[in-house]
Amino acid sequence: MDKIWDRFDVSGKLTLKEFLIYFQNDKGLTVTMLSCGVTLLYNSFFANKQANRMHLSLPKLVEFVSKKPVARHQKDLIFEICADDEEGEDVEVPFVRVDLRTA
């Protein structure tokens, strides 16, 4: 599958579970790792141990894992993902902008 993206934009209302489903169903990508800055938010190798994170909205997930609040004036968060395509091949993907104004 040849696709080119410059970035992904998603709503801050999404939970981690909805985020993973969105990329799987709409983009054909399986997210294997998710980070924000230096904070690793999700790793598919430890999905069972991270089950308690699935119901958290993306901003709440950042706060939960980093133990730091997201600044109230902040308009978005930038996530980096590692992902596999439908054939299970690692693909290079751009960053994800999480719009906090829709949170």
CATH fold description: Structural Genomics Hypothetical 15.5 Kd Protein In mrcA-pckA Intergenic Region, Chain A
Report the major sheet: 6 strands, mixed
- Helical proportion, percent range: 10-25%
Q: Assign the CATH superfamily.
A: Ubiquitin-activating enzyme E1, UFD domain
Helix and strand composition category = alpha+beta
Radius of gyration, CA atoms, in whole angstroms: 13 Å
Determine the N-to-C terminus distance: 32 Å
Mean pLDDT across the residues is: 93
Content of β-strand: 25-35%
Q: Figure out the total of helices.
A: 2
Topology:
Elements (H helix, E strand, L loop, with lengths): L7 E4 L4 H12 L2 E7 L2 E5 L14 H9 L9 E9 L5 E2 L4 E4 L4
Parallel strand pairs: 1-6
Antiparallel strand pairs: 2-3, 2-4, 4-5, 4-6
Could you explain how this protein is built, in words?
The chain is of the alpha+beta class. The chain has two helices and six strands. A hairpin with a 5-residue loop joins β4 (76-84) and β5. It is 20% helix and 30% strand. The chain has one domain: Ubiquitin-activating enzyme E1, UFD domain (Structural Genomics Hypothetical 15.5 Kd Protein In mrcA-pckA Intergenic Region, Chain A).
